[in-house]
Amino acid sequence: MTRIKTDLCIIGAGSGGLSLAAGAAQMGARVVLVEGHRMGGDCLNYGCVPSKALLAAARQAHAVRTGGCGVAPGTPQVAYAVVMEHVARIIAAIAPHDSVERFEGLGVRVIRAWGRFAGPRMLEAGGNTIRARRFVIATGSGPVVPPIPGLENVPYLTNETLFDLRERPEHLLVIGAGPIGLEMAQAHARLGSRVTVIEGARALSREDPEAVAPVLDRLRTEGVDLREKTPVTAVSGQAGAITVETGAGPVTGTHLLLAVGRKPVLERLNLPAAGVETTPAGVKVGDDLRSTNRRIYAIGDAAGRAQFTHAAGYHAAVVIRPILFGLPARARATQVPRAVYTDPEMAQVGLTEAEARRLHGARLRIARADYAGNDRAVTAGRTAGFVKVMVVAGRPVGATLVGEGAGDLAAVWSLVLANRLKISAVTNMIAPYPTLAELNKRAAGAYFIPGLFENVWVKRAVRIVQGTLP
Ligand SMILES: Cc1cc2nc3c(=O)[nH]c(=O)nc-3n(C[C@H](O)[C@H](O)[C@H](O)COP(=O)(O)OP(=O)(O)OC[C@H]3O[C@@H](n4cnc5c(N)ncnc54)[C@H](O)[C@@H]3O)c2cc1C
Ligand SMILES: NC(=O)c1ccc[n+]([C@@H]2O[C@H](COP(=O)([O-])OP(=O)(O)OC[C@H]3O[C@@H](n4cnc5c(N)ncnc54)[C@H](O)[C@@H]3O)[C@@H](O)[C@H]2O)c1
């Protein structure tokens, strides 16, 4: 056993662990980073990067198929294996950024082994005993495998195996219509698979129904057979012929993808030895992201809060303050955006309209702008969608967006919510013409329209001033 003493030991080299390691090492801390599997974690290897690379390929195929702007439609030549090699190349292109070499170059000591607590201040990993002033659990999450009768005898895919496919699924069955299920459903439909999505409740059920509707309409128009409120009762069959039994009858396809949620990855850590308590969502933490052992923090998916790469990065920025400088810091959920990268995209920051109405009642005002009124959207033929802003006493409390580039547009509303800015901060901004970014300014401007354009007092004041001006 090699004994290592360090300031900070991070377990997990995914989105959260890597951000923290890079920041802490560059600010002068001694950092040990323990990774049992692939550097880059879920996002790089099985999550954001491959899914967005596949969606990009699917968009190309869709553009050829549909034509538009005076360009005739055609038949896209899609070789699924070549598309998946493109996905693998994208992962490989980003991998150096998350590599052992890069992090060792930053002064981080990287240990490629699974970590396991041996006590409240001691971790064992690959023949090393690591004693650290602070530990951070950044071990991420994995796909839930639900207790569906028959599943144990049926070959199924998850996000960890989907991108290994090299033959296009003839008919892909997807259980779960959350972000993973819908993104992969649209990608595969556009790449030529028949796709059936089976959802036990409502698709994207936590999102604003007004924003979800155009997404589901588009998927259905593109041929995705989306069945909501259809609980799965059993599955059976073998590779190439898998049957999912539902209350509304059976459906048979060639491949089955499970996309029914995530569970924290904590099992190897031996957390009881460290006095770290857990809940089904993840490590039990407060807003300071500290566990029940005050020397141990949890960030990212393992902390059981928002499960996004940008949330993991934000958590890293929060815990670095107490760990390096002994300063207090709290993670706020308010400004954490979420986006679904279907076409059209959907994004949410802060409260939805329903949540804001529950919380603020009659004080809530809604300001909105439609893509149809945005010149850039018109020139691109992408006029479906809207930006809706929930405003209370002149300050936005949430924004809902659906349409081309909604995820990018959402960033402005995160800025506004993070800094508790007034909505006038967005009207003061000047967006270049013609850009979709003007939609944010237009939505903010709409907040002032009743007070400015539909106000008799304003009109009278203008008359009086005009009557007196030389
Ligand atoms: C299909 C899919 C698409 C997604 N798309 C998006 C997206 O578009 N945008 C977005 O923001 N988010 C997206 N996400 C979510 C995003 O991938 C996660 O929120 C993010 O990866 C979480 O980062 P993390 O650092 O908490 O965990 P991870 O990135 O999962 O890293 C955890 C690391 O810890 C390691 N580990 C676990 N246990 C141990 C141990 N005992 N010892 C040592 N190492 C250990 C693991 O091997 C892993 O490398 C997507 C997820 C999926 C599945
Ligand atoms: N664009 C993004 O940022 C992005 C993309 C993918 C994933 N993610 C992250 O990963 C998380 C997990 O995504 P997800 O889509 O797997 O989970 P999810 O929890 O968001 O959605 C799962 C869906 O499956 C349904 N379901 C559960 N059990 C079922 C059953 N037995 N039969 C039928 N339907 C069932 C649920 O009702 C739900 O609608 C997201 O919440 C997000 O944090 C983010």
* CATH class identity of the largest domain: Alpha Beta
Overall mean pLDDT stands at 97
Number of helices: 15
The profile of the biggest β sheet is: 7 strands, mixed
Percent range for β-strand residues: 15-25%
Overall, the morphology is globular
Computed structural class: alpha/beta
Kindly identify the CATH topology of the largest domain: FAD/NAD(P)-binding domain
The count of β-strands is: 23
Rg from alpha-carbon coordinates: 25 Å
Low-confidence sequence ranges: none
InterPro entries: FAD/NAD-bd_sf, FAD/NAD-binding_dom, FAD/NAD-linked_Rdtase_dimer_sf, Pyr_nuc-diS_OxRdtase, Pyr_nucl-diS_OxRdtase_dimer, Pyr_OxRdtase_I_AS
Keywords: Disulfide bond, FAD, Flavoprotein, NAD, NADP, Nucleotide-binding, Oxidoreductase, Pyruvate, Redox-active center
Binding site for FAD: 52, 115, 139-141, 301
Domain Pyridine nucleotide-disulphide oxidoreductase dimerisation: 336-442
